Each structure stands twice: as structure tokens, then as C-alpha cells.
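Bug #77: duplicate submission created two jobs. Keeping one. Sequence:
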Amino acid sequence: MLIDEIKQALANLAVIEKKEVKTETAAPAPAEGETDQADAGKIVTTEVIEEPALHQTDYAQKGYHLDITVAPDDVVSAAKQLLKLGFFIEAVTGVDWIKENQLEVVYDYNHWDECCRVVVRTFLDREKPEVPTISEVYSGANWHERETHDFFGISFLGHPDLSPFLLPEDADYHPLLKDFKA
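Kept job's structure:
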């Protein structure tokens, strides 16, 4: 199955995410003769689990089958793996997470022959948003990356031409950043 092939090809690129898992168990009953109810009820334990940020999703709900988060330096490797598996780039865009002081780059891929969509994400420091270009792997990413640079100020390192695409040539602003003031 294609999803399993993709998981296998991209698993080593996924960043490791930490999740807290809480488990509730019934507290032991008080010993005979004890009336203290302080320990009655439930015991909650918390465990931190580390796992790759590679998730299969419900296509009907999300619009994609697989969601993977990679380090910025791994976006080109992920693009190459998806190209080998018959995917094309559908879109590249940004998201401003101003409270977290991060920018996110989202790459949407689609398969030529099967209904299979994959989202690759990477997070960048908002103060220096740089990520390698994938335009050498997918030439169609060229304009998507230029648009994302226009609107979010994300630099795609190695890109052949990050001149303004939709904004005026003298634009020194990025209008989709949440702190942009018109």
C-alpha cells in the first residue's frame, strides 16, 4: 500500500515529538478499619512518550492522508523521497505562529496515480526564517516559494530568484505576518 511505502521512506526524517499521556487508575480501597477517604478515587499518572511526528489521518476529515513534520534541513530529502514515489508538489505556503515566535512552512504533495495527499511541515525561528529551497527537486515550487517569501518573509536558501512575485518590486514588508501594520 502506498501509505506504508511513504511512511517507510519518510520515517527517519520525522522530528521526534514529545507527548504527555495521562492514565487514570482506581485507587486501592482503604484497609479495613481505615476511614480516611483522601486516597479514595483515582490515581493519575503522567508519562512522556517520544514518537516520530508522522501521522496517518482521516482523508475525509483532514483532506490529506499523511502528515509529517521534519527539520528544516530535511525538507529537500523529503521532497526527493516523495518525487521517487510519484508525487507532485501542489502548494507551498506559510503560517505565522507569532506567540510561539515561529513560522511554519507547509508543503502539500499529491500523487499522480492514486488519491494520496501528503503534508510536510517544518518550523522556523521567526527571527531568521530560512529553509532550503526544493525548487531544484520540483521546479514548480519556484513560484510557490517566491509567493511565500513575499507574504511571510521566509528565505528559501539556494532559490534562483526570490524577487517579489505578487508584491511591488520595492516592497520591504510581508503582509501575512501577524504583526504587519498597513
